[in-house]
Amino acid sequence: MESPLMPSSEKKSDGDGVDGGQVVAEVKKQLFLAGPLIASSLLQNILRVISIMFVGHLGELPLSGASMATSFAVVSAFALLMGMGSALDTLCGQSFGAKQYSMMGVHMQRAMLVLTLVSVPLAVIWTYTGEILAFLGQDPEVSAQAGIYARWLIPVLFAYGLLQCLTRFLQTQNNVVPMMISSGITTLLHLLICWLLVFKSGLGHKGAALAMSISYWLNVILLALYIKFSPACKKTWTGFSLEALHDILNFIKLAIPSACMVCLELWSFEMIVLLSGLLPNPTLETSVLSISLNTASLVFMIPFGLGTAVSICVSNELGAGRPNAARLAACVVVVLAVTEGLIVGAAMTLARSLWGHAYSDEEEVVKYVAIMMPILAISNFMDGIQCVLSGTARGCGWQKIGAFVNLGAYYIAGIPSAILLAFVFKIGGKGLWIGILCGLFVQVVLLLTITLCTDWEKEANKARERVHSSTVPLNHVS
Fold it and tell me: Mind telling me which residue stretches traverse the membrane in this protein (predicted)?
């Protein structure tokens, strides 16, 4: 506790001047972090896609039920757990930067305890998924199938929360390659497990949900074993500590706004798909909006990796007492996000006439998707910038500010604009997505303004106070 959190040598190296060599080094560092993070995020999310693909071969009704159950799972639980887990981006990241390595394990244990407890009432909600969907007016047969699928998904819920904690524990210490490897192993095995449980065991669509449970728990076990036995985690994991049972309230105070940041944004995108069902020709509009959302989610993994990388770097540098290095990291990744947005946007625009064929043979759908692709390209460009700025906010511990920004951007600007354009000006599904673009624009402007007005010295002091206040003598039990 008495060791300096900002060694004099580190303070001297954090001068005001930035030369080309520092920028190049920072770009390399960010890309090294972002690459495995993008890969592991894609591999983890593709598990749900693989399961639904296998269910699709069982018939239209099981496919509809599994798809609806998966969407319900994302909205009701996965987004919440991912958001709460992102509080560790701040706590573990700043502790690592301050060289308070043993506290990282304590923070992770607190998060694991809280997320597991939160998963219990969520599991109860999932038990009644079918009844909830039927009450909301969904087709009774599809709701019943979704309810069965969701109940078999319940073990995933607890594994998902633990996985969020383990991955953030590793990534905040710049140890990202093991996450990519474990996710790759899990994905490969998931293909085999799905085939066996869906087609060979007689479980049908229930087997796909069970395969998800097995695969997520396998990923958790692989990462837990790595943390337990790897020399790379020797300093940061020193065993279970009773201190994890204390100061839980401070974690919750950061975890709740973290969850709000994620949920408020994700729910707004899901809401426009629901609103599309109220438009004329709802079958076409819903299909195209679903394709658009799936496409946006796919390309989102790239800026998501960049946002996670900048969150790691900013939290590490602030914890180490290097505010100028934190500012440089934020600036570099914003430039990377803009570059990525331009490249991916150009590719999406050029492929606009072909992309719809991957989802449908209906010419009407293909043409509508082609019209949507340039809008999605702009959306991805804006999303990349906001993702990096949101990552900077998590690294600094601005989750509460970020929650208010997302609330205002999407629910005061975005959703009302979408409703106005779609239903008043009769622009249809395009209007819904343009409305979300308005929300994205407001979010980017607000976050960028906050970031540009940041006193980085003050943020470094706040990080030092946060780390110092959480550093206590540890009482290990294993």
Answer: 31-56, 68-91, 111-129, 149-170, 177-198, 210-227, 248-269, 289-314, 326-348, 368-389, 401-425, 431-454
Question: What DSSP letter does each residue of 122-183 carry, written as one string?
Answer: HHHHHHTHHHHHHHTT--HHHHHHHHHHHHHHHHHHHHHHHHHHHHHHHHTTT--HHHHHHH
Q: Are the beta carbons of 147 and 68 closer than 8 angstroms?
A: no
Residue 259 in tokens: 């969850």
- Phi (first) and psi of residue 204, to 5 degrees: 65, -135
Q: What Å distances lie between residue 153 and 71, 116, 184, 309, 434, CA to CA?
A: 12, 15, 21, 30, 34
Structure-block tokens of residue 232: 């790379």
Contacts of range 286-290, beta carbons closer than 8 Å, 24 or more positions apart: 287/360, 287/365, 288/365, 288/368, 288/369, 288/372, 288/429, 289/429, 289/432, 289/433
The reported pTM is 0.84
Handedness of CA 96, 98, 102, 107 (dihedral sign): negative
Burial track 118-152 (b if 16+ CB lie within 10 A, e otherwise):
bbeebbeebeebbebbbeeebeeebbbbbbbbbbb
Say how far apart CA 100 and CA 94 lie, in whole Å. Answer: 9
| Contact present, 346 and 393 (Cβ < 8 Å) | no
**What is the tens place of the pLDDT at every residue in 115-135?**
999 999 999 999 999 899 888
Whose structure tokens read 């004329």?
Answer: 280
Q: Give kind and range of the element (H or E) at residue 346.
A: helix 323-350
- Calpha distance 334→321 (Å, rounded): 22
Residues 391 and 306 sit within 8 Å (Cβ to Cβ): yes
Q: Does the pLDDT value for residue 475 go beyond 60? A: no
**How many angstroms from the chain centroid is the CA of residue 103?**
24
SS3 476: strand
Contact 393, 426 (CB under 8 A): no
- How many residues does the structure list for the chain? 478
For 162-218, write each residue's pLDDT tens digit: 999 999 999 999 899 999 999 999 999 999 999 999 888 888 889 999 999 999 999
Q: Pick the closest to residue 130 from 66, 177, 179 (CA basis).
A: 66
Residue 415 amino acid letter:
I
In this structure, are residues 63 and 142 in contact, taking their beta carbons and an 8 Å threshold? no
Tokens of 34: 């972002």
CA distance 312 to 29: 11
Which phi and psi angles does 241 have, rounded to 5°? -130, 140
* 250: CB partners within 8 A, 6+ apart: 470
